[in-house]
């Protein structure tokens, strides 16, 4: 590959990140309507953009989730500038920012070999599923609004599914505009939770975590009940959870494109057996 043309790298402002998410929309990734502030707050110093003159040409997010874990997403090069080394430039900036961390990503399979050359190993595959809302339905008596329950119980439950605690992120994720965050409360304990967010096209559900397939099904139906029957709903399902794949298909969701979860460094332990949908491909 030729040396990258003269460019400068700088950390993204919120305005720059909004542009990066517009690029993600163009790529068909369908980000959330309010992802700019949510993603920026995770790690304000972890979003990078390459510029040639006054033109932005490439972007990436390398987000620190706590001390020892990071995640790469929003890795995009403007089409007319691809193959010029600019992607490698932002890639290296993100990895430098995440130095000392175990690093994860959700990449398209055709890029898996490229990520492997940077030391990433395949952990599992995910599958995007898409369906339709259910329209209004009566609520299940065990389903509660997450914002109205003790936050510590949610933070402790979420820790089973993420390599590092993320309380600040959860506080904003469950309260985002045009979003819905529901929990399953049984015998005074949180036994599952899920979040739906409004996206450019339809809605996405993630994360969706539950102690049993029945609880996951109840939460999925409740989250879909807040969406019109002609509106689309998407979720990214980890393929090792066969119950999650069966649930999506039982609810009429159709499988779409795959992604590959990869890690550089020791694979973190997360409870995939109880994880029915990932939070978001851009942030892990």
Automatic annotation (TrEMBL):
Cross-referenced InterPro entries: Acyl/Acetyltrans_Enzymes, Acyl_CoA_acyltransferase, GNAT_dom, YitH/HolE_GNAT
Pfam families registered for this protein in UniProt: Acetyltransf_1, Acetyltransf_18
Any one Gene Ontology molecular-function term assigned to this protein's record: acyltransferase activity, transferring groups other than amino-acyl groups
Keywords in alphabetical order: Transferase
Gene3D superfamilies assigned to the protein according to its UniProt record, in alphabetical order: 3.40.630.30, 3.40.630.90
Residue ranges occupied by any N-acetyltransferase domain in the UniProt entry: 7-141
PANTHER family: SLL0310 PROTEIN
Name of the featured protein: GCN5-related N-acetyltransferase
